Amino acid sequence: MIRAKVIGNLYATCKDRGLEGKKLLLVQPVSKDGRPKGRPLVAVDSTGSGYDEEVILVRGKEAAFPFLPQEVPTDLGAVGIIDCVTWNRDAE
Question: pLDDT digit string (tens) for 27-63?
């Protein structure tokens, strides 16, 4: 799983039928302290998340599981909205 921040939406008029009606998010992976990590990615949203929210991403075939039985051609999906993050800094 990957922690990321929603930084925008992506709109595509011409796309695979499996993506019709699906919200595409532009997400920025973040480190545990919330700093940007790596390059922005595109994920299919199953949570109804919005701009500036933090989400949980999954990779691979599991990214399409929330849409079953429909087949959605994706390998990255937003499957949760993060409410709060805590960790024991002494355990690092």
Answer: 999 998 899 999 999 999 999 999 999 999 999 999 9
Position 11 in a domain: yes
> What pTM does this model have?
0.89
Residues 6+ apart with CB under 8 A from 56: 1, 2, 3, 78, 79, 80, 81, 82
Q: Is it the case that residue 14 has pLDDT exceeding 90? A: yes
CB contact at 8 A, 40 and 87: no
In a domain, 91, yes or no: no
Count up the domains in the chain and report the number: 1
Q: In the 3-class helix/strand/coil scheme, how is 52-92 assigned residue by residue? A: CCEEEEEEHHHHHHHHCCCCCCCCEEEEEECCCCCCCHHHC
DSSP 18: G
Cα separation, 22 vs 90, whole angstroms: 41
